[in-house]
Amino acid sequence: MTFNCKICCLMLLVVVLFGCATIVSKSEYAVTISSKPDGADITVLNRAKETVFQGKTPTTVVLKAGAGFFKGEIYTVIFKKEGYRSHSAQIERGVDGWYFAGNLIFGGLIGWLIVDPATGAMWTLKNLHVDLIPESSSHIKEGLYIVTIDDVPNHLRSEMVRIKS
């Protein structure tokens, strides 16, 4: 067997034995977490409700996409800032395109059923942005604001004045 043939066989073996998403993609993602306004205290919890990160927005956190065999991790982020309502949101998770397309072409059943699900490389995580809501109207600066009725909190609607044209 020639050297080139041995290299080709070795490359084919690697492609067949390992999942495509594991080779091409990753199992950890740098997730950007931001808020409007900046400076909110955040706590990131995993599916077991364990704290995996605490800090302030904006920030970037490296998080594992997988939580076990065929399980994508679920992250909940709790936002707190003085003068604003506390808010919690989940980081969106999706299926990596390389998991489907790559294993269809290269990785095969071993990639689909074993390698990518075990490493967590079959999942992706998306960035998270939250617009925080002020606790009361005392945080609104003076001036003229044009908003829709849907933008006004229910507890403030009774204080609204109708302007006749």
Key features of this structure:
165 residues; Immunoglobulin-like; alpha+beta; elongated; 9 strands; 3-stranded mixed β-sheet; 27% strand
Secondary structure elements and pairings:
Elements lengths: L2 H15 L2 H5 L3 E9 L4 E5 L5 E6 L2 E6 L11 E5 L6 E4 L2 E3 L1 H23 L3 E3 L2 E4 L22 H4 L8
Parallel strand pairs: 1-9
Antiparallel strand pairs: 1-4, 2-3, 2-5, 5-6, 7-8
Structure, described:
With about 160 residues, the chain is an alpha+beta fold. The protein has a domain of about 110 residues: Immunoglobulin-like (Sandwich), CATH 2.60.40. Helix content is about 30%, strand content about 25%. Strand 2 and strand 3 form a beta hairpin. About 25% of the residues are buried. About 5% of the residues have low confidence.
